Amino acid sequence: MRVSANALRVPGLLALGISILLAGCQSAPMRSETSSPAGSAPIASMGPEAGDGPPQSSSPGDAVGEPVDANAPARGEIHDVATAEFALPAGLPEATADANTMVAHFIDVGQGDAILLEFSCAAMLIDTGGEDTARVSGKDRLQTYLEEFFERRSDLARTLQSVVLSHPHADHTGGVSVLLEAEPAIVIMNVLDGGPPSSHASGGKGQRDLEAYANDTEGVGYLGIAESDIRTVSGATSKVIDPINCRRGGVGVDPKIAALWGRADLDVAWANNANNDSVVLRVAFGKSVFLFTGDIQAEGIAAMLESYSADQRAFNADVLKVAHHGSHNATTAALVAAVTPKIAVIQSGDSWPDDERFSAYAFGHPNATALTNLLDPENGITLARDQPKQVRVGTKGRHPTNGTPPDFTYWTMDKAIYANGWDGNIAIKATSDGVLTVETEY
Ligand SMILES: [Zn+2]
Question: Who surrounds ion ligand 1 at CB < 5 A?
Fold first, then answer.
């Protein structure tokens, strides 16, 4: 008898499925002789952010994504090959156990993205998904999660140091109103996106509303980043991209946040797909490195990687937020080879209920092709789930015109690939010395 995933759910958050994974103990394959060990932080610190002090406040009009390190080699135009050497890692300070951990919360907003990054002194949000069907309100789920979070972390005074919108689609911007209409108010200090959306973007209103908030509110930083703003192979940063520094008085961690991709102003068809304009972020918390890829698709991934052909180590990460909800076209073998992820997280919804519109069911997410790339024996996920799980995998989405239903199959997943549709809310705790712990809701 087939058992619905719903029937397996256990009430209460983070009840089951706790895995402790030692990132520092499992080196990913070296990509070149000069590669840093996996999990180290090869991006050098930007001068003004290094050192002690409170989180940087950003001034409005921080309009240029500065290189993370002015001495880092040029990234070059797309299709160019830069030749200079990669910047060396910054030295990591000692930190207390208290301040030594961050948590990436992959909130189950159904079919859509919403990732809350929690640090000892600050929080930021990447995307505000998600699903908006009769069954799932991503907005309600985001609101509930944030309210519980700010209750637990009352020290943060309902403040998000930044809100990043990867691209202007509704499954990423649909919860902006949750932020802007919160009572009591949620304070947003910085907004990062790919610049004003086109008039036909499905999530354009949410993004425009957040941009208006940033532009109309004194002291709020804003940056719309284009890929052409990113000039070195260590990515770009600025006070808007990386407003967080939890290192004070010689203790704590200053996470290094860099943008590796943004809006592609190119006269090619793929660049007209907003998915390929996704802001791609690298977050290095000491030796624990996360890569957040929005919804970038195969053509955008190829151009992005090619523009880093001189040195792709900035993509080397422990945890990969899989692009585009695990769609067939969202995770290429070349990207997996550049990332060599230990853990992957897919923000797709529960595909069991046969919703007719924007849902994991309709799209057949996550797709077997993406999972096969992630399971590549040479470059793919090396760590294991605490116990294997039978999961539902799409082999094709619903036909866009004739409505032929999607197809699914069932795999036993033993590698450390997690999906909100399989696992509910997912939280990954990362210490600055590279210990990763995964907690899932179901
Ligand atoms: Zn999406």
Answer: 171, 295
